[in-house]
Amino acid sequence: MSGRHHLPSAPSRPLLKAGVVAAAAVTGPLAITGTAMAAPSASSGTWDELAMCESTQNWEADTGNGFKGGLQFTDSTWSEFGGEQYADSPDEASREEQIAVAKKVQDEQGWNAWPTCSEKLGLQ
């Protein structure tokens, strides 16, 4: 995805006094933006939870379905985000190397790069 999301400017006090509906409209986007901004520094536990959902945390997974490693990269995504500096294929890279590449993917594509599991884990 190109472009960056920016935090909305701080609402004025009268807007907050307008009521629950206005407050919900203001806090909804902030929660989404806050999640997206916090993601690049996601803890290793978050990546482990995602890998558990994606591959039962099998960092060497290659089941022949086109997705490899603990975080289920395609070869093209692995290559595009610099994974080949670590290994030819995601399933041949270490957990830490896969997470390093995943952080780059997440920074550009958001948690939607792992649509089912990120939704299941409440990361979206």
From TrEMBL:
<feature type="signal peptide">
    <location>
        <begin position="1"/>
        <end position="38"/>
    </location>
</feature>
<dbReference type="Pfam" id="PF06737">
    <property type="entry name" value="Transglycosylas"/>
</dbReference>
<keyword id="KW-0732">Signal</keyword>
<dbReference type="InterPro" id="IPR023346">
    <property type="entry name" value="Lysozyme-like_dom_sf"/>
</dbReference>
<protein>
    <submittedName>
        <fullName>Transglycosylase family protein</fullName>
    </submittedName>
</protein>
<keyword id="KW-0378">Hydrolase</keyword>
<feature type="domain" description="Resuscitation-promoting factor core lysozyme-like">
    <location>
        <begin position="42"/>
        <end position="117"/>
    </location>
</feature>
<comment type="similarity">
    <text>Belongs to the transglycosylase family. Rpf subfamily.</text>
</comment>
<dbReference type="InterPro" id="IPR010618">
    <property type="entry name" value="RPF"/>
</dbReference>
